[in-house]
């Protein structure tokens, strides 16, 4: 009897929501059905998704940044197929692999010159966990400083560095010695570091939750303060790295040299999870300082051949297709074009970002009718207005987007880096129409708003 994935998919082509509801997270299914995102996708190519009716959707989430080179890229598929057919020894453990050495070399070609060692793992949160451990061992200090509204992952160590309470609530006690400071506040950071007892300051160069961009002097001063007080500077580039912001690393916008860079997401090519930490020779040599400590920290599936092949193929595609440059050009065009609409619409505050990490922020308007409608939504659930943008974008314009964070009036774009000028124009036109509709009161979009507010209030009551 043969085993066939294609046959299984054919047999259960419309069962995914029932299966997920029964065996996985039923609340996620409720959310998707409530906002009308319960589609049956059958195919994915590049920046597009296709449902069972053949409708094309422009994916501006890219799996939260995983599909930077687009979905199902043929170069990565070819590399993985080839790796599977070579019958390579894999995860021998008491051995080292060629592919991991090659991927490490290729990654380090892109990083600042002070970083010349790589640790591989399976995800961004694992990379952050490794950075915490390595920083503590290297400095012989306990404290870790992070930023308000920062996001670094959901395992217990990484969660201890997450700045939003909704992710932390009920999971404590968390890792001791973790201290938060406001993002982009150098005085607060220096005060936290001045005791010379902080192992590391970990920061996203551009904060993912809200797409918050620092002042031009912030990261250079972070580097200086960390050196002054003996604290390791850790850049969490899990989301911002590998071309996302129009530079290979977001830190390249400010020409800084952190002691460690955490990475994951896009490095996978969208197929096999892979994370890594780039670090200085000193950190690596301190942690792995004797032969009996050669395996003091590791991860069973890290450095597996499929993950390493996916990473190598992804880096090849990034360079061959000039995706970093495309991210910078198309992303800047989108930001500028959306900002040009701000004079037309009271609800639109600004578009901001770097490359293809983009936020569109909305605000309370001045007109009394619009202001009252805004207040109604905010009273039901802060940030609800954004759903009146994202839902029509999806249903009417077939664009998949997300809200930038809990309780924020910010829509976030995190698209594949291979967007075309046609995609750019479609995005701007769709936002123009969606925002314009919110300024029509009464109107069908505000019927949706009232419905969303009702669901939000019902949820607060435990319904």
SSE diagram, text form:
Elements: H1 5-11, H2 16-23, H3 26-35, E1 41-45, E2 48-51, E3 56-59, H4 62-65, H5 74-85, H6 98-108, E4 117-121, H7 124-139, E5 143-147, H8 156-159, H9 165-168, E6 178-181, H10 186-193, E7 198-203, H11 218-229, E8 232-236, E9 260-263, E10 275-279, H12 281-287, H13 305-320, H14 323-339, E11 348-354, E12 357-362, H15 368-380, H16 387-395, E13 399-400, E14 402-403, E15 410-413, H17 421-438, H18 444-460
Parallel strand pairs: 3-13, 5-6, 5-7, 7-8, 8-9
Antiparallel strand pairs: 1-2, 2-3, 4-10, 9-10, 11-12, 12-15, 14-15
Helix pairs in contact: 2-3, 5-13, 6-13, 7-12, 10-11, 14-17, 15-18, 16-17
Proportion of residues in helical segments: 40-55%
| CATH A-level architecture of the largest domain | 3-Layer(aba) Sandwich
Please count the beta strands (DSSP E, at least 2 residues each): 15
Largest sheet data = 7 strands, mixed
Helix/strand/pairing category: alpha/beta
Please state the oligomeric state of the protein chains shown.
single chain
- How many domains would you count in the coordinates? 2
Beta-strand portion reads 5-15%
Shape: globular
Instruction: Report how far apart the termini are.
Output: 47 Å
Description:
The protein folds into two domains: 15-69 and 323-460, Aspartate Aminotransferase, domain 1 (Alpha-Beta Complex), CATH 3.90.1150; 74-320, Type I PLP-dependent aspartate aminotransferase-like (Major domain) (Aspartate Aminotransferase, domain 2), CATH 3.40.640. The strands form three sheets. It has a seven-stranded mixed beta sheet with strand order 4-10-9-8-7-5-6, sandwiched between helices. A four-stranded mixed beta sheet has the order 1-2-3-13. Strands 11-12-15-14 form a four-stranded antiparallel beta sheet, covered by helices on one side. The protein has helices spanning 5-11, 16-23, 26-35, 62-65, 74-85, 98-108, 124-139, 156-159, 165-168, 186-193, 218-229, 281-287, 305-320, 323-339, 368-380, 387-395, 421-438, 444-460, and strands spanning 41-45, 48-51, 56-59, 117-121, 143-147, 178-181, 198-203, 232-236, 260-263, 275-279, 348-354, 357-362, 399-400, 402-403, 410-413. It is globular, with a radius of gyration of 23 Å. Helices cover 42% and strands 15% of the residues. The model has no long low-confidence stretch (mean pLDDT 95). It is of the alpha/beta class.
